[in-house]
Specification:
The chain has 307 residues and is mainly α. It contains 13 helices and three strands; from the N terminus they run αααααααβββαααααα. It is globular, with a radius of gyration of 23 Å.
């Protein structure tokens, strides 16, 4: 069970429903970061409104969702939509559990955010980034994380959550077991360059995989069981700056993995399997958004018609 402060001033009266909702989110997503996001939204909403779930009306959620944040900044369409979606998810849970009969979010029209164009790094940019990392235990660990992200295409939580017990060896190949989005689990081969980088990093920290306990993180930290997502993100921004690259989130490596696989000649089906997408349609849209807007085919057409 996950323990968080109650989302309402009433305290214990809704605490069990709150805890059950977060426990279900953890089971389905496998991500504690996701759970923390939902917990934060619930605390902000019900704490700000000063009401318990059965007292909240549509206009209450509307007022809270569109309110300026602590910095005084007007929330973006994406932020408003995320706020409403998070609270609506909680109410859907309460209705399924028979605790309430109506969802105040159903009456709200959610803004349609304009998604930013995703981008993936080129092979040359990945090389530049890796060269910007220091040759230190922390730098070697972070380099191994980046290589694993790029070569496996796994999500941030799936890679940073890897333990020694998730890795196995059959004498010829190394495999890793992952806990994916939506409760998916699977086993894939760990690309040799990533495994070699992991071994180098562990040695730099005075460890070897063979002598690690199954629950030990593959990514050691100073005085901690493993590097946190926040710490890795902060270090990554410094690496991007050092490589002369614009700042980006960790998810850029999943984009990079898909982009480089497709450019190397992988079929749409192969990329879809690689990313664990639910359908080829999802992968098709994913890749279309990653494609360069530059037209590289006009030259041959112009030449063919004598221009």
């Amino acid at each position: 069970m996950i323990h968080h402060p109650a989302p309402t001033p009433a305290g214990d009266s809704w605490q069990r429903a709150f805890e059950a909702f977060l426990a279900e989110k953890l089971r389905r997503s496998g991500s504690r970061r996701t759970v923390e996001t939902y917990a934060g939204l619930l605390r902000q909403c019900f704490g700000t409104l000063g009401k318990t779930p059965e007292q909240v009306r549509s206009q209450d959620v509307f007022t809270w969702a569109y309110a300026n944040g602590p910095s005084g900044r007007v929330p973006s369409a994406s932020t408003v939509a995320a706020r409403i979606a998070g609270i609506s998810s909680f109410y859907h849970f309460l209705i399924r559990m028979g605790l309430l009969q109506a969802n105040p979010c159903d009456a709200l029209e959610r803004p349609r955010p304009t998604p930013g164009r995703p981008r993936g790094l080129t092979a040359a940019e990945v090389t530049r980034l890796l060269h910007a990392l220091p040759d230190s235990p922390a730098g070697l660990r972070d380099s191994a994380i980046i290589l694993t992200l790029v070569l496996t295409g796994r999500r941030r939580a799936e890679v940073l959550g890897l333990k020694a017990g998730d890795v196995s060896w059959d004498g010829d190949h190394v495999f890793y077991h992952y806990h994916g989005k939506g409760g998916k689990e699977g086993q894939r081969e760990l690309p040799p360059p990533a495994w070699e980088a992991i071994q180098r990093a562990l040695l730099a920290w005075g460890r070897t995989w063979e002598r690690m306990a199954p629950g030990d993180s593959l990514w050691p930290g100073h005085g901690t069981p493993g590097i946190s997502s926040g710490t890795f993100y902060a270090r990554l921004q410094r690496y991007f700056a050092g490589a002369g690259l614009p700042p980006a989130g960790v998810h850029i490596f999943r984009h990079t993995a898909a982009k480089l696989r497709r450019k190397a000649g992988a079929s749409l089906e192969d990329v879809s399997h690689f990313l664990d997408h639910s359908s080829l349609a999802v992968t098709s849209v994913y890749l279309q958004r990653l494609e360069s807007p530059h037209d590289t085919g006009w030259g041959s057409v112009a030449q063919a018609i004598g221009l």
